[in-house]
Design a protein that fits this description.
The complex is a heterodimer. Chain A is α/β, with parallel strands linked by helices. Chain A is built from 4 helices and 5 strands; from the N terminus they run βαβαβαββα. Classes of the chains: A alpha/beta, B alpha/beta. Bound molecules: flavin-adenine dinucleotide.
């Protein structure tokens, strides 16, 4: 799968377009470089991006470089994973979560979308 | 205290171990203990397989300055130090992987392990270096609001609370350190303590008392965390007067100590009543042959990075000798050989002059 990752890199500027206006469900991983647990789930996020290609959008937002959106969504801890559908938060997970838990949440959303 | 109850083996139901990867040494955890064990085991050509768990680098990735790890004359940032540990272990061929060990079967050798509920691994020896995790108060709404204003790691989450009023509970050095750290962001930090004196060292107390942003609420306990989707306040009680009140804070930090991550081994290993694994005197041997324990998971006395690293080294040497005695490897090397073992790259061994 290598480095040309399949996840979308979010910024305060493209959040509206990529997440809120997306017609697919979106998983957003709020993270930072200095956050150990974020590093721990990074490979999971990358795998999900491959696994769900075409079914759901997997995206990452660096909270150091972007402060507006994390504040708007009340991010208080990282990693926080928010699941969006039709522009609204429909599910969330905080901290290091197992891949299969996240996959189950995505499956639920992707099947509704179909 | 002895092993309590029979271990639950249901996690192994229907799992086929015939094709499972088999290793000399599996190390569980990558704090100072696990990575030092990995370094020594790798240099002994045991090709250790190491699982990182949910906190690669261990507890120190949650702190800022480490001032007391020998060798860093000017101090070092916790995450940077653990990066150095990892690089040094990998330099000698440590096989480091993502994932948590989710079940163990120590009933026969090779031992059976499950990683992330799905991957079977066989291990001739296991080194446990699972460390410790922050304790919570166990309040009704504490876990529900975790990550929504409740935190056990000021250095991880403090920056999300700019110009807010925060509360922190605890009376030890860590609590003072975290309170001081939080003053970088918060407009006010209330330290809640159930007694009227602190356990913290003199120097930390003085620093905290001298800081204008910190207020102390003595003889105070937290009864619950308030808020729907985010922390909106705390229900607190003065234990002297019995009076309850609401403290308007938007963040609640818990700094009341740590507990060993040993749940996984209950029923297999001897532990004390608080869950610390018991090791045989002057060694890292547990009550099960071939299973070794090091670091905070077995140490409720010292709990320092340097002691964790020290016992990690002991565990690797114990495992190597044990494997040699049980015919799994060709023979132990002497202490001198340890120090002479060349690195995989060319700048050689552990030589430190220069
Ligand atoms: C805020 C703070 C500041 C500190 N400051 C200092 C200091 O300045 N100096 C000092 O000497 N000490 C300090 N300490 C103490 C020091 O961090 C610990 O003593 C040390 O980290 C213990 O090392 P360890 O390797 O035993 O375990 P830990 O560092 O706790 O590491 C445990 C490892 O095990 C892994 N793990 C757990 N369960 C599993 C599983 N089931 N499967 C796979 N992996 C698993 C975790 O992911 C982690 O990698 C501090 C601690 C804290 C919390």
């Amino acid at each position: 799968m290598a480095d040309n990752a399949k996840y979308v890199t979010l910024t305060d500027a493209n959040f509206q377009d990529e997440v809120l206006n997306s017609d697919q469900p979106v998983l957003v991983d709020f993270w930072a470089a200095w956050c150990g647990p974020c590093r721990a789930i990074a490979p999971t996020i990358e795998e999900l991006a491959s696994d769900y290609e075409g079914k759901a959008k997997i995206a990452k937002m660096d909270v150091d470089n972007n402060q507006q959106i994390p504040m708007q969504f009340g991010i208080r801890s990282i990693p926080t994973l928010l699941f969006f559908k039709d522009g609204r938060i429909v599910d969330q997970a905080i901290g290091v979560v197992q891949k299969r838990e996240l996959a189950a949440k995505l499956d639920a959303l992707a099947s509704q979308a179909a | 205290m002895n092993t309590n109850g029979t271990p639950d083996l249901s996690a192994f139901d229907g799992i086929d171990f015939d094709e499972a990867e088999r290793r000399n040494v599996v190390i569980i955890g990558t704090g100072p203990a696990g990575l030092t064990a990995a370094l020594y085991a790798a240099r002994a050509n045991l090709e250790p397989l190491v699982f990182e768990g949910t906190q690669p680098g261990g507890q120190l990735v949650t702190t800022t300055d480490v001032e007391n790890y020998p060798g860093y004359a000017d101090g070092v940032l916790g995450p940077e130090m653990m990066e150095d540990f990892r690089k040094q272990a990998e330099r000698f061929g440590t096989d480091l992987r993502h994932g948590s060990v989710t079940a163990v079967d120590f009933s026969e050798r090779p031992f059976r392990l499950m990683v992330d509920h799905e991957t079977p691994i066989l291990a001739d020896t296991v080194i446990i270096s699972t460390g410790a995790s922050a304790k919570y108060l166990g309040l009704k709404n504490e876990q529900r609001l975790l990550g929504r204003g409740v935190s056990a790691c000021a250095t991880c989450d403090g920056a999300f609370f700019r110009d807010e009023h925060l509360a922190i509970v605890g009376g030890g050095d860590t609590a003072m350190e975290e309170a001081l750290f939080l003053t970088r962001f918060a407009k006010k930090v209330s330290v809640l303590h159930r007694r009227d004196t602190l356990r913290a060292s003199q120097i930390m107390q003085e620093r905290a008392f001298a800081n204008d942003t910190i207020e102390f609420l003595w003889n105070t306990v937290v009864e619950d965390v308030l808020g729907e989707n985010a922390v909106e306040g705390l229900k607190i009680k003065n234990v002297e007067t019995g009076e309850t009140s609401t403290l308007d804070v938007t963040g609640f930090f818990v700094a009341i100590g740590h507990q060993p991550n040993t749940e996984l081994f209950k029923g297999w290993l001897d532990m004390d009543e608080t869950g610390y694994i018991q090791t045989l005197p002057d060694s890292t041997y547990t009550n099960i042959e071939g299973v070794f324990a090091c670091g905070d998971a077995q140490d409720h006395v010292y709990r320092q990075a340097v002691t964790a690293a020290g016992t990690g080294c002991m565990a690797a040497i114990d495992a190597e000798r044990w494997l040699a005695e049980h015919g799994a490897i060709d023979g132990v090397r002497t202490q001198t050989e340890y120090h002479a073992a060349p690195a995989e790259d060319s700048d050689g061994g552990m030589a430190v002059q220069g």
